[in-house]
């Protein structure tokens, strides 16, 4: 609700025209994440360096287009996430991942193309990996660290929606030495989630406000 001259006004509804490749007409912002911004995110540093040498540091790994009305406890951020296919060593292409800065905030991810995994760690010790294909959605409750992983051969595209005031804590995963599991090639055309030997546990009492 916006106050103008003492009278409460509300924003206009927005039409968001969303294509299966993730393009969204009506978006208010776009951000792009290149390979160089994912240093230390993949578990295999040697393979990461090889991928940077092969593709270039500026190769795009994922992009996010979104629409919101600015801050406000009732506002939604609605958008698309497009994650390119690929692997770094055995590990499939991934997003940095985060816990919401207001950690009780939930999120919807609805797959519109490709094949991916929503990898999730709860702060109380559980881990989940949900495979998403077009028509399938993950409802990620509050209190779960989450990231997207592309386990297919084409772009993995989802529509997401969360409370705008959720915010993102991207550092919680780095501080923990990565998420609890790695999503890797199973050697048989599929994927499997295996324990991440570098994971040191999440700090408690952080990233909640
Ligand atoms: Fe999120």
UniProtKB/TrEMBL annotation:
Keywords: Gluconeogenesis, Glycolysis, Isomerase. Gene3D superfamilies: Jelly Rolls. Pathway: Carbohydrate degradation; glycolysis; D-glyceraldehyde 3-phosphate and glycerone phosphate from D-glucose: step 2/4. The keyword Isomerase applies. It catalyses: alpha-D-glucose 6-phosphate = beta-D-fructose 6-phosphate. CDD domains: cupin_PGI. Its EC number is 5.3.1.9. Residues 37-196 form the Glucose-6-phosphate isomerase prokaryote domain. GO terms for molecular function: isomerase activity. It comes from the Bacteria. The keyword Kinase does not apply. Belongs to the archaeal-type GPI family. This is glucose-6-phosphate isomerase. It comes from Homoserinibacter gongjuensis.
């Amino acid at each position: 609700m916006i106050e103008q001259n003492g009278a409460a006004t509300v924003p206009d509804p927005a039409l968001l025209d969303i294509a299966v490749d993730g393009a969204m007409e009506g978006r208010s912002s776009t951000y792009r994440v290149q390979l160089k911004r994912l240093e230390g995110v993949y578990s295999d540093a040697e393979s990461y360096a090889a991928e940077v040498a092969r593709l270039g540091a500026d190769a795009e790994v994922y992009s996010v287009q979104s629409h919101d009305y600015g801050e406000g406890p009732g506002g939604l951020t609605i958008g698309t996430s497009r994650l390119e296919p690929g692997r770094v060593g055995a590990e499939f292409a991934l997003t940095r991942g985060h816990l919401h800065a207001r950690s009780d905030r939930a999120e919807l991810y609805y797959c519109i193309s490709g094949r991916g995994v929503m990898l999730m760690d709860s702060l109380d010790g559980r881990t989940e990996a949900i495979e998403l294909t077009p028509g399938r959605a993950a409802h990620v409750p509050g209190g779960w660290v989450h990231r997207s992983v592309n386990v297919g051969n084409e772009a993995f595209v989802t529509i997401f929606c969360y409370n705008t005031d959720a915010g993102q804590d991207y550092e919680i995963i780095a501080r923990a030495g990565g998420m609890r599991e790695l999503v890797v090639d199973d050697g048989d055309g599929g994927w499997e989630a295996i324990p991440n030997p570098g994971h040191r546990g999440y700090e408690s009492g952080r990233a909640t406000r």
